Amino acid sequence: MSFLFHESTLKDQHILITGATGGIGYETAKVAVQAGAKVTITGRNEEKLKQLKNECRERDQVFLYIADLTNTEDREQLLSAAINQHGPITGLVNSAGIGGGDMVESLSEEDMRKIMELNYFSLVQLSQAVYNQMKDQTSGSIVNISSLSGLRGTHGNSAYSASKFAVTGFTQAFAHEAIENNVRVNAICPGYVDTDMGRNAIKSKGEREGRSYEEQLEIAKDSIPSGRLTSPTEVANTIVYLLSDAAENIVGESVKISGGSVMR
């Protein structure tokens, strides 16, 4: 897919991207840099963060910082380091998240807490901290990565789905408050994305149904009118659009990227 944005689309912007070692965050960083932004990328895998920085067209626009977002001190130090490096944060992409879980009858408290802690609580806490700075400058954009599973429940997916419903609800409620200070908050709700997490979800569903990954993948594709999974770059392009001035009146939306699957 060719680059869709002008190199000045995000000029003078500082975008903080969490979960940058995952497929969606990884591609979003590359697209944001191409669109002219200064970017702070964070995650827990230093090697992959370095690899991402090397793949970005303008490496000097990329600042990497290793952090565990479930840790309060790590979040505070991340923000301090990012602002010291690139100045005030103008855009936040909350892409950090995990899948997993089990059928309700087998779901452990440990799994439930782990999924909710990263997918929801740390997202809210980081958003609070960034928003306190954004409202002082009366501008900014926050994009939360939710899921189609944050709009409708799916079989064997209760813990993940609950965490993403929480993200979607938080996005809508927060958007009402934030827009009073000219800060836009939106969510992206992808279906199956061709990332490690997406492929693992397909694999896990196949295992529960006694099918191979290849068999389950074909079933997944057949359920999508477009006949394919969404690429992480397609999600990244949508995120960068929401970060840009072109989306200045898009507020509190849950933007679905499903290849048409929500029509079924």
TrEMBL record:
Pfam families: adh_short. It comes from the Bacteria. This is 3-oxoacyl-[acyl-carrier protein] reductase. PROSITE patterns: ADH_SHORT. CDD domains: SDR_c. Residues 13-215 form the Ketoreductase domain. InterPro entries: KR_dom, NAD(P)-bd_dom_sf, Sc_DH/Rdtase_CS, SDR, SDR_fam. The keyword Oxidoreductase applies. One of its GO terms (biological process) is bile acid metabolic process. One of its GO terms (molecular function) is oxidoreductase activity. Belongs to the short-chain dehydrogenases/reductases (SDR) family. Keywords: Oxidoreductase.
